Amino acid sequence: MNRSSLPVSVNTMKKWFESDDKVLQCTLPFQRHSGMWSPILKSNLVWSMLADSYIPPIVLLKDKRGEDSKGKDIFGYQVLEGQQRLITTLFPFLNDEWALHGSVEPVEVEGFTYDIAGKKYSELEEELQDIIKNYRFTVQAIENYTMEEAEKLYFNINSGVALSAMQKGKAKLGNELMEFVNTLLSGNFFTQAINITEKQALKEDDLLMLMQGMALLDQRHEQREFKNISAASMLSYAESIRNSYNEEKQQMIMEIVDYLDSSFENKNKFLRKNNVPIIIVMSKIAIENNVKPELFKAFINDFANALYPAYEEASGSGNIKIANVIQRLKVMFVAMCNYFGWNIDEIGKPFESEDAWTWDAITSENSEADDDKASTDEDSPAMGSFINEPTEEAVDTEDMDTEGDDAEEVVDEAGENSGISVESE
Fold this sequence. Notes:
Blueprint: E1 2-5, H1 10-18, E2 24-25, H2 39-51, E3 58-67, E4 73-81, H3 83-94, E5 107-109, E6 112-114, H4 126-133, E7 139-143, H5 147-158, H6 165-173, H7 175-185, H8 188-193, H9 198-202, H10 205-222, H11 231-240, H12 247-263, H13 276-288, H14 293-305, H15 309-313, H16 322-340, H17 359-363
Parallel strand pairs: 2-4, 3-7
Antiparallel strand pairs: 1-7, 3-4, 5-6
């Protein structure tokens, strides 16, 4: 097995991949197909290229395919390492198929600072477009190999990749359901509107919030029980729906996410990790009652600027405990009924309960939310600070269930502002 460097640009490799001769392919049978990178990881690759940050090499297998009319060797290439970077990220980006994530920081290039968040390739400044299409990764070409040697090399490259809890959850979902979930996460709500830090985005907390919302909808419609909605619990939930999240349920969550895409075009400071799963359930109730997206957004903004002590208490320490999640659902539901003038007894509730659903209950200084301090969540400020912008300096701990389930420590090895490490493919 021999190795050599290959001086080739992104644009050239794209032409190879799209050519009729398929000079570049990505069809190795042993590669892991665990779904596309999240929008933030794709976006941070582009940021890293523009910022000239370190990016691991691309590794190609090089094979002789024959000779041309002049007797010159013709070579073909297989992507061994770099599938996500090239095939699912950069080539589609150059074709304007996706926009950079809304949380991507400005990038400095040759002394000038550019705001690139939310932009497609064609919307970037011309000098930035040139950097991307002409970018040259360190490309290693492997020749004279056996397939056994190539497979061993592939797994050696990827064996040290550290995954967050939600990245591990992708494998639990299975390829088909993960592709569906990736489609949901690629819309405007999860890429531009939710208010998460870059660190949270790199951990794929957007996937966690979506899974939490899906779980709470199952609680509502199927009376499924959860002790909490921690990342560990959502891993178990992901595994449980792998072969049972049927077409009807997929259609329901797709309708909800489409509705949220229409409701929130830009970043909304209230759409934080503590609140998004609750809003997912409330949007389902809004759809059932024919509330237009712009009116639902108006309600959420009104709720964010009001003071609800019971919601505040349920958003503190232990906010992932199901008692506190239910308390937040109840408060927002009653507030929504009051906002739209609905008869609360005639509206489908967010969960089954024999307790009273009254306005007085949610505006009282004394809430029934569990005050257990055992479980914590990443950002649990008082209600008054929900409308403040989170900072990267804020403590960001992984959801932990300390009441019996195995707590799983998650290691984040992504570099600052780049999120680019040896990819898991």
